[in-house]
Design brief:
The protein folds into three domains: about 180 residues, NAD(P)-binding Rossmann-like Domain (Rossmann fold, 3-Layer(aba) Sandwich), CATH 3.40.50.720; about 90 residues, Orthogonal Bundle (N-(1-d-carboxylethyl)-l-norvaline Dehydrogenase, domain 2), CATH 1.10.1040; about 110 residues, Transcription Regulator spoIIAA (2-Layer Sandwich), CATH 3.30.750. Strand 4, helix 4 and strand 5 form a beta-alpha-beta unit. Helix 1 packs across helix 2, helix 8 runs antiparallel to helix 15 and helix 15 packs across helix 18. It contains 19 helices and 15 strands. It is about 40% helix and about 15% strand. The protein has an eight-stranded mixed sheet with strand order 3-2-1-4-5-6-7-8, with helices on both faces. The longest helix has 18 residues. By secondary structure, it is α/β, with parallel strands linked by helices.
Amino acid sequence: MTAIDRTGIVAVVGTGTMGQGIAQVALVAGHPVRLYDVAPGRAEMAADAITARLDRLVDKGKLTPADRDTACGRLSAITELAGLADAQLVVEAILEELGAKQQLFSALETVVSDDCLLATNTSSLSVTGIAGALRHPGRAVGLHFFNPAPLLPLVEVVSGFATDETAATRAYDTAASWGKTPVRCADTPGFIVNRVARPFYAEAFRLHEERVADPATIDAVLRECGGFTMGPFELTDLIGQDVNEAVTRSVWEAFFQDPKFTPSFAQRRLVESGLHGRKSGRGWFDYAEGARRPEPHTAEPCPAPRTVGIHADLGPAEAVREMIAEAGIEITPDRTPPGTRACIVLPDGTRLALTDGSPATDDPSGRAIHFDLALDYRTATRIALAPAVSVGPESLRSAIGLFQALGMQVSVIDDVPGLIVARTVAMLVDFAADAVGRGVASPQDVDTAMRLGVNYPRGPLEWGSELGARWVRDLLRALDGAYPTGRYAPSRLLCRRAAAQEKLL
């Protein structure tokens, strides 16, 4: 371990919410901590706020009064940068403006010792660019904490182009010694989390813009079928539409307006209207006192069919076969013509198939209903169905009744390629694979970052392995055919893994 010794001074420059949180983490870990802010009196106010937080930890029984007093004795606010001269680590948490950060790092370099580690908590700017103003840029590293820093375990340790390996390792080990879960990544736009997570928001917003379903329904399907803790509409209302849209736009521009990262027009209009989410009282949803949250579209109860046929292996949805039998629905002998894709056949001949990225209306039978991917069909409490335009109401009612008999609520949406969960998960898998393929981070670190940083139910690469690279690639290729802009073109690494799977068959 090359972690900074617990007696080593940690300095935090910038004492807003993130700065205070980082200072608290270092303080509780046992370091002397110094606070500095260019605004007069801000550092002292931050010290008081941190003390108050420690008092609350005492009230909750998570910290003893003696440990609180000892920690507070190690905390000090200073009024001049010169007071950081003996710091072993300085973490910068000022405004997200490249020039300001460069100016601060240049000033720090004239004050601190040559072996002092300089870290930036930036979430969207280039660590390489911030360190570019230094005489010795090898000492600079990204330490990207997630808000609230005292509670969330993930820290992205970002190596800039000139970062010394010893500096990155020292930062990684220090974060680990503070009880955090650090992951290593290269200095690319969005690092790991803010890069890989973009489709979670972008696909939902696109579905809304295409009037496939309303925000409440899309959120419900991703939560209750996809297993995500929050839907993208409610989550961005919590984050702040202005904040989320700014990150999306920053990553898009940093990737030279790559169509894979294209921002949402609908979200831009929200921001321009000042509808920033919970903090403004309204975003996608209304948070005014007494306002009622819209309910997701849920189909009325329908009778389940007494019998169904099942043709071929249902792939990622194979668990549905057992669930149908357990529900007491008879599975009749399969009479579907050879060459037909895997499906559940309703008594009237309508085919229920797991989405493959194509519209149900394109099915050669002319009578198809696509259903969505689930994290786990046995625990899913909602499913999305997308009927072809030629499917009659009675056939749709039969499909609805089937899934209701399996214990799921049903949301009927417009016939859209990839539905909701499947296209979102496929894009997350592809973005994760692309990050690994480009050397941004290891597969393990990508999955760890996405589980801990944004609380995904499963790491996207693990999810992709369970689904199979071929299944994900083929779904994305179908989406790419439906939307030929390059947005859905599968990454090189995903295609290589899919090809390797094919050779094993």
